[in-house]
Amino acid sequence: MALSEIIIDKIRQKGMLSFRDFMDMALYYPVLGYYTSKKDKIGKKGDFYTSSNVSSVFGEMIGKQVEEIWHLLGEGEFTVVEMGAGHGLLSGDVLSYLETNHELYGCLDYRIVEKSPALREEQEKRLGGKAKWFESINELSGIKGVIFSNELVDAFPVHCVVMEDELMEVFVDYDNGFVEVLKPASYELRDYFKRQDVVLPEGYRTEVNHDTLKWIHDAGSALELGYVITIDYGYPAPELYAGHRNNGTLMCYYRHTANDNPYLHIGEQDITSHVNFSAIDIWGRESGLELCGFTDQAHFLLGMGIEKYLAGIQNSEPGKYMKKMLQVKTLMMGMGETFKVMVQGKGVKRCVLSCFKVPSQWKL
After folding, report:
1. Run of H or E including 148
2. Residue 33 falls within a domain, yes or no?
3. Are 145 and 171 in a shared domain?
4. β-pairing verdict for 78-83 and 108-113
5. pLDDT tens-digit map of 286-339
6. CA distances, 208 to each of 18, 35, 252, 309 (Å)
């Protein structure tokens, strides 16, 4: 049975679904969901590219920041948790960099949290025995080190809301096709905007990524000492909910073509929305996470010494220089402002991490 038929059958039996639950089924339904299927998702044969597909240097720069954190935390036993590792390309690049530091690599415990059986199988083939796999961050505790993610949060299912006389939530029904129905929003959704001092004008449609709040709480609870690094596309709340985004940021990607209709290609297309970094900051504080910095990907790479990296290649491997330079150009210009990097710390001394040494316009 097709996934669309399963969703229709559930609506007929149980009644309309919140858009959040519809999106959750479309993305994560066992075997047939977009992320749980064996369909190619990332790269030329998939539906979109990530920074790790563009160049290994992205993972190397993350690895360099992780190495600095290892020194800051006093060296010794060290855990890195990657949440949602995709095809494992980024994991491999980070591990390759960390392996150059034999002392760090010898005491490294690399863990991957991955809920997709298909992706986990691919990761295991690519990475071999260096990593350990878990289905949930809740299986981990007492972490000393780093929890990081790249393009994870944008794939969480979201509630869709519309401001009328009061805040309304979008539900999905079926009547010879999927139709949207508005119902008064819950207290939790209304409180989400209230806590961020966000007032939506009448007619404004947007998304609420409520799953992010639980995710950052769980990550903060699992971390005893160290940092949470979140890399994704999105904005602080004032920018995310600006007037010109009155139709929201929900987008779908199918074979490298974007559309705004989540009711097409169900289970075969990605559905995503921009991340609210203000919410991650506010709700992260409840589990002891303090904001250390927020910037865009271009300035992150500059802070990590990308220019020195390229100069080194030009001197030592001139034949590879042009290719690497073009890859870095894509990371910095094509993706550099769209993607943001947020770091939160727990139990750590105040200091400026290298990734924030080159100031950017972005503030929380």
Report:
1. strand 143-150
2. no
3. no
4. parallel
5. 999 999 999 999 999 999 999 988 888 887 777 777 887 888 788 888 677 889
6. 12, 21, 17, 39
